Amino acid sequence: MTLIRLGRKLVREQRGSTIVLMGFSMLLLLTVVGLVVDGGTMYASKSHLQKVANAAALSGAQELTGEESRVKEIIDDILLHHHEEESLVATEIQMKSNVRVQLEKEVSLGFSGLFGKDSVSVIVEAAAQVMPMAVASGVAPLGIDESIPLIYNKPYKLKVDSSGVEAGYFGILALGGTGASTYENNLKYGYQNEIKVGDIIETETGNVAGKTRDGVQLRIDSDPYPPGDYSHRDSPRVILIPVYQPYDQNSNQLKNIKVTGFAYFYISEPMSSKDTSITGMFIERTGTGYTNPGTVDKGAFTIKLIE
User: Fold this and answer.
1) CA–CA distance, 178 with 173 (Å, rounded to integer)
2) Are 222 and 236 in contact (CB under 8 A)?
3) What single-letter DSSP state applies at residue 280?
4) Contacts of 146 (CB under 8 A, 6+ apart)
5) What is the reported pTM?
6) Paired strand residues for 155
7) Quick one: 181 exposed, middle or buried, by C-beta within 10 A (0-12, 13-18, 19+)?
8) pLDDT digits (tens, 9 = 90+) for 24-46
9) Which DSSP symbol is given to 200?
10) pLDDT per position as a tens digit, 229-283
11) Residue ranges of the alpha helices (H) in 229-296?
């Protein structure tokens, strides 16, 4: 009988220990699950807030060549669109350089509230910088010699015929092949392949004044904005052109040019039947492209997220 009672006692003690161990294990499991859930909440909130900050910085940077008030307006619009206007802590703007956005948001927690931690502050920061464009697509088949000073927002004429030209070249590029029809298509719609600083490009020396008039007129006719308004990023009057240095010149004929940068040109008026140049002005502007260290600033910029 004594052995039987002892055996029963041991069984009861083991059952009690097992129950305690299971209870402790369940508590530990619930704690881990709670921390994982709260951690996931924090991660999701921070990820969302970081994406909003990135979008605000990148969008605001598009206007760094214009007015500071416009940069702030774009940032506010992005935050409002994502319902994060109350999260803005600070905005730092350096025109023609960079913009920095800092956001902070209080995130509610679930399980951690049991330990007196009902919420946590999530802080993110993003910065975007404008840099001279080194690689671009959609380029117009026109060029400007790098030795010619670019005075922004002043009337300028891009010559498109050979009258009065001694060197046998007047700024017309053969992008993707020679011929008037190729030139016209590239002027109307932009050359779709990439061009980069350092590329050697063949020149087009034929008389393309007529094709130029047609291309310019198409761009003007398809522009929905008032003349002189180049603030809209989809304005067809704004063309991107390579800046070059002469590369291969035989006698009076310039055969090739070397791309050294990019510039934006706004077409201000149609060409008459007697015009041999495109009237407009060079402007500073950001666009889609890439940058490389050492690229020369010619007014065309691309945007890079730096934080």
Assistant:
1) 8
2) yes
3) E
4) 243, 244, 245, 260, 261, 296, 298
5) 0.81
6) 281
7) exposed
8) 555 555 555 555 555 677 788 88
9) E
10) 998 989 999 999 999 998 877 766 778 899 999 999 999 999 998 888 899 999 9
11) none
The encoded tokens of residue 22 equal 């299971």
Distance CA 92, CA 11 (A): 71
3-state secondary structure 66-122: CCHHHHHHHHHHHHHHCCCHHHEEEEEEECCCEEEEEEEEEEECCHHHHHCCCEEEE
Beta bridge partners of 245: 258
Alpha carbons 11 and 23: distance in angstroms, whole number: 18
Both tokens of residue 200? 């050697």
Structure tokens at 122: 């999530």
Single-letter amino acid code for the residue at 26: M
Q: Which amino acid is at 140?
A: A
pLDDT (tens digit, 9 = 90+) per residue, 97-153? Answer: 999 999 998 887 665 555 556 778 889 999 999 999 999 999 999 989 898 888 999
- Of the CA atoms within 13 Å of residue 47, those in its CB half-sphere come to 6
- How many Cα atoms are found within 13 Å in the side-chain-facing hemisphere of 277? 16
